[in-house]
């Protein structure tokens, strides 16, 4: 496990956040250097100052279609400087991205390098991107939609803590709504029109339209979160403007188009302007798909059992699913993603490696 630990510790030291394009470039440079091998083909891309790599085997097909694409992101959310220094306690490694997702990326990087050194040439590829934490528009989405990459199946170790196989993901719609009012002195509100009051009425209206009662213990139902709110300029002025940003997550039969239509309709009632910021359809992967079965068998071979789950968050899986590509996700053991004490279990990373190695043999 030492080579895997060493690789992860090195990846953690890069401050690969969106605000540090130099560090995004540096970590991709390092990954490219690590993966250099006569048996591997490395293609490099840059879109919107976000670098990415696609790694495959030289004797595989050159049409950018593969049997399986493994996908991971090397960017992380901001953290204190000391969180970019890996700390080892027992069998855990602490640090920003240890679980999300530099640990799983280290597993995939080592897998591809080991396969190349063993002379194997499977029909698989590895995508490493640097913008997942800010929406993936210049990473996975760009590589699939603009560069033409595709596959029969995708594996993304970015959800499913403690080896739950994730085959279902909620849809997501982030949107910004701007409200206009008419300013007036706070002592004479009848002369003005409050943008904040409009926003509050809209919020109650949109909640009543998008949400429904559910007692599902797994909360597999629609949710709406008011993430940011800004409005008003002074305490003694009727507020002339307000703005809110909302996070809507939804499950079938609700669709992305339906969500957009509803938001636009309700906003129009209040004379508001809507901006859709990011989006993704919900998806569910067929467990009877032949490659799904191969993945499940590989997990059972290594762990002796199989656990399934669903994810409420949006992942890069939505871009594959939108193109009809089945997706599974799985995570090693760890906790506190985006928190102050993010950690991953090193033995669980080794087990994740074994699962992927067994899976590649099966496909």
Question: What is the strand and helix layout of this fold?
Answer:
Blueprint: H1 2-12, H2 21-35, E1 40-47, E2 50-57, E3 65-73, E4 87-89, E5 92-94, H3 102-117, E6 124-129, H4 140-145, E7 150-156, E8 164-169, E9 171-180, H5 195-210, E10 223-231, E11 241-250, H6 256-269, E12 273-280, E13 283-284, H7 290-303, E14 307-311, H8 317-321, E15 327-329, E16 334-335, E17 343-345, H9 346-362
Parallel strand pairs: 3-6, 3-7, 7-15, 8-14
Antiparallel strand pairs: 1-2, 2-6, 4-5, 5-17, 8-13, 9-11, 9-12, 10-11, 16-17
Helix pairs in contact: 1-3, 3-9, 5-6, 7-9
Quick summary:
The chain is of the alpha+beta class.
Strand arrangement within the widest β-sheet reads 1-2-6-3-7-15
The strand count comes to 17
Overall mean pLDDT: 96
Order of helices and strands: HHEEEEEHEHEEEHEEHEEHEHEEEH
Cα end-to-end separation: 25 Å
Q: Which segments are poorly predicted (pLDDT under 50) over 5 or more consecutive residues?
A: none
The fraction of residues in strands falls at 25-35%
User: What radius of gyration results from the CA coordinates?
Assistant: 23 Å
Tell me the major beta sheet: 6 strands, mixed
Number of helices: 9
What gross morphology would you assign? elongated
The level of helicity is 25-40%
Please state the structural category.
Answer: alpha+beta
